[in-house]
Amino acid sequence: MILLANSEAWPGFVETVDRLNAGEHGLGAMVAGISKVEHEVSVRSVGLGGWPNMLGEMEFDAGVMDGTTRDVGSVGALRDILPAAALAQAVMQRLPHVMLTGDGARRFAQEIGFPLENTLFDDSKRVWWARLEKELTPEQLAAFPYIPLAPLSRTITDPERVRDTTVFLCRDGSTGIHAATSTSGWAWKYPGRLGDSPIPGAGFYADSRYGAAACTHTGEMTMRCGTARTVVLAMRLGHSLGDAVKLAVDELSELSTGFLGGVVIHAIDAQENHKVVSFRCGEGIEYWLWQTGMPGPERRLAETL
Ligand code: GLY
User: Fold this and answer.
1) What pTM was computed for the model?
2) Is there a contact between 72 and 100 (Cβ–Cβ < 8 Å)?
3) 206, 177 in Cβ contact below 8 A?
4) pLDDT tens track for 157-195
5) Which sites are catalytic (predicted)?
6) Three-state DSSP class for 102?
7) Could you tell me the residue ranges of all domains in the chain?
8) Which of 258, 154, 273 is nearest to 211 (CA)?
9) Other C-beta atoms within 10 Å of 280: how many?
10) Pocket test for ligand 1, best of 60, 160, 217, 224 (most atoms within 8 A of CB)
11) Residue 284's pLDDT band (boundaries 50, 70, 90)?
């Protein structure tokens, strides 16, 4: 077995390891772990601790993929409901659809018993409003939110503030390879913006025969390249894990517009090798790893380009 997750995964990583060791299906084990991440307010990019959109509303994205069946579930721009990854799993298990967004996702959550929650943490609200006060004129503040938001999308949205989605990849005791993600997305994003975390093939992909991949940071880049799918497809075509990730890195590097600086690719293969590569030079990006035979999880440093 192997479990790979990004640095923000710490609140739920051991929970997932314990469940994998107990023989649980990898997807359920990871969703249980991610639920703990989503409820940890000190993780400032996922769930309750995340940052709101421009209007001060929390909007969550999450996705899951069962690499054995290639079933997928995801939710996007989900308001007032957590845990988002568990809801994505419910979409996969209970609906003939892959993705629900916005009001439809919230309605489905309530139908199946998820309570509505206040998901805007006081400190996030304070920081959001302070940012608006800094950026908007007194006239704009007085009229807020009835002002055009589009001009703000290039001034107050902040790709630097959000470093990580949480992403979990595993190969479980039944040799199933699975992927799960969750995020609150870019700080101060335009309402309704989806990142790559709910987009299968971009933010996550899994195929039990070959491996899995998931990405963190600026989803706008990995959506343009279908990065997670590129990695797994390359392995299907016979590339090693290292070469598959390199191909995805090369594709992303060809993009001459957008913010590539923070993107991190996490990947595992069916031989339980792993690779984590970061585009951020000069800053140590960490990840969590556990494999059968290791006494406990290890925090390691990603490769940089
Ligand atoms: N990778 C997370 C996002 O772009 O929202």
Assistant:
1) 0.96
2) no
3) yes
4) 665 555 578 999 999 999 999 999 999 998 899 999 999
5) 165 (nucleophile)
6) helix
7) 2-304
8) 273
9) 17
10) 217
11) confident
